[in-house]
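Batch job 17 of 40 flagged for manual review because the log was empty.
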Amino acid sequence: MLLRDESLTISSLQPTNMKLICLNIWGGKAFGPLMEYIKKESKDTDIFCFQEIFGSGSDRKESNGTRVDILTDIKAVLPGFDLLLAPIGSNYDNKGPVDFDVVESNAIFVRKNTIAKIDSSGTVFVRGAFKKLAMGETLQDIPSNFQYIRFSVAEKKFTLCNIHGMAYPGHKLDTPERLTQSKILKEFLAKEKDAKILCGDFNLMPGTESIKTLEEEMENLIGKFKIERTRSKVSPWFGKEGFQGFADYMFVSKNVNVLRFEVPDADVSDHLPLMLKFS
């Protein structure tokens, strides 16, 4: 595991182009298709950004549909990748508190033989701090964070942020806390002078002030490419009244060369993957 402010040098097979996939994995609820997808895409992907990664030392495999040690499963299909982990909270699954040890994290996997040199990494909480969820609390009590890595591709420097934004309230509209979340992200990225990529599950609908705040300085690729939805057909709400088609976004600064961006209609989670090729 790459810890904060460590440096990792990795060699090159391709000169400049990179491929990034961002996905909220739904705690591994669509386990089989998800693992097949990650394994397939790992052949030419340089960086994976995941949300809702759970890890546990327990003998349990599953709790309320959540794969409680899917971190180990993903590491097994990505042996050629280094892991950067940003723990959020512990002792809950996707339904609520549990009575065994399990930790939810955001995670970035970086290919070992890619062209990037990782210079530093870290975690910033946008709500609360890491906590163990107590019995009687709810998922509304869990904190939220984003992780970042700074890396170089040839002579070009990048900052990449991976976020899992606040899931509650479930309307995915503006709240004071969500506006603060966007302010923290904007202020953090304003200090980064190099090329910037921000991605993840923001739990926000388009047109909110929280999204507009981020659009002031960065380009929203979901809007630019007229993506119709980022939630998948395996979502329990798909096709029903009140279905929220958006949650996930990818923003880039003007000095990121976007070679290709797409949102594949892959039924591997209740979210769809976001794929970016860039230099």
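Reviewer: the log was empty due to a logging misconfiguration, but the result itself is present. The two ends are 26 Å apart (CA to CA). Unflagging and moving on to job 18.
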